[in-house]
Amino acid sequence: MRHAIPGEIVEVKITGIEKSLIRGDVIAVIEASPSRVKQPCRFAHAGGCGGCDFQHIDIDRQRALKSEVIAEQFARIAKMEVEVEVEEVSTPLHWRTRYAATTSAAGELGFKAASSTKVIAIDSCPVLIPEIDFPTLPRNEILAGRRVDVALSTRGERTVGVSQLRSSRIEQNHPIEIIEGRKAMFFDVATSFGESSYQVSQGSFWQSNINAPAALTEAVLEFADLGEGDHLLDLYGGVGLFAAAALPLIGESGKVDIVEASSSATRDAAQNFRSVTNVAIHTVDVAKALRNFESADVVLLDPPRTGAGAEVIERIVALAPRSIVYIACDPAALARDTGYLRALGFHLHAIRAFDLFPMTHHVESVALFTADEVS
């Protein structure tokens, strides 16, 4: 039930009925939870903006609920007990540095309603970094029925791009026209392992939370425990966020193979590693690429929301890595793939979770799998 909190008594409007699931949205609260707060955005209500679905919940309870979801998914799907605390990464508001908005046929700029194509006109969004909030956009250059992609780099560079296709026809790698800034921006990420800089084009993936790249890099490298001469296989490696941070650890005698299907991301990666001789970049589907590798010391994978799946997991295990580090944005997919790994002899050794998307139900996890012991 959208906009409800477990334990509350509410009146809802049914928005969808599936075989084993009824979806609804709260239209009245009869008995409120002590965790209920006034939402900071006036568009976060039934029938309103579909972006933030946790704004009515106290931030500590938000993170507790996300921890419960991870535990529930592992219990239901992987048939195992997992206890993990969701860690704070940023402030609850003003954390988002990248977003995609939509214009209606009438030219109203905003976000879509939940489970709908209806555009909710937005004049300001409290989770956005102020420098890219709606009032700052060049609205006169944005046509009706178009998608608008906005991003802000750590160096203060801002890019605004408008799709050349109407919103209903947009695909993942849609062509865009840059109406402000440059297509490629630069992001600096500082961690305890060092500092790296990255070129990231408008069409390439980069975490939207301002502090996410550093937080994830710290966790990934801690779990990977890389050493001199190691071979790191970086699957779904994007522009090379983790690969760049790993280079000082593996040294000149080590090697990194980045596998990424997005040509935009691998073009950026090629630029990011243009003066590095021990990084190879492969623009290819991960499942196909894995046929060409015989071994790896550590495998890192950051798949899309659907997860890696049985075929990819089987091919990773065939490489006999020392460890596997898995970054997941969907606890259910991670739990499913944990089951695949366990069946092939790799066990969950450690897991961390991060609140990269405050005010929403989304949560990011980093899991370490090893073949030497059962957790």
From TrEMBL:
<dbReference type="GO" id="GO:0070041">
    <property type="term" value="F:rRNA (uridine-C5-)-methyltransferase activity"/>
</dbReference>
<dbReference type="InterPro" id="IPR012340">
    <property type="entry name" value="NA-bd_OB-fold"/>
</dbReference>
<keyword id="KW-0949">S-adenosyl-L-methionine</keyword>
<dbReference type="InterPro" id="IPR030391">
    <property type="entry name" value="MeTrfase_TrmA_CS"/>
</dbReference>
<feature type="domain" description="TRAM">
    <location>
        <begin position="1"/>
        <end position="28"/>
    </location>
</feature>
<dbReference type="GO" id="GO:0070475">
    <property type="term" value="P:rRNA base methylation"/>
</dbReference>
<dbReference type="InterPro" id="IPR010280">
    <property type="entry name" value="U5_MeTrfase_fam"/>
</dbReference>
<keyword id="KW-0489">Methyltransferase</keyword>
<keyword id="KW-0808">Transferase</keyword>
<protein>
    <submittedName>
        <fullName>Unannotated protein</fullName>
    </submittedName>
</protein>
<dbReference type="InterPro" id="IPR002792">
    <property type="entry name" value="TRAM_dom"/>
</dbReference>
<dbReference type="Pfam" id="PF05958">
    <property type="entry name" value="tRNA_U5-meth_tr"/>
</dbReference>
<dbReference type="InterPro" id="IPR029063">
    <property type="entry name" value="SAM-dependent_MTases_sf"/>
</dbReference>
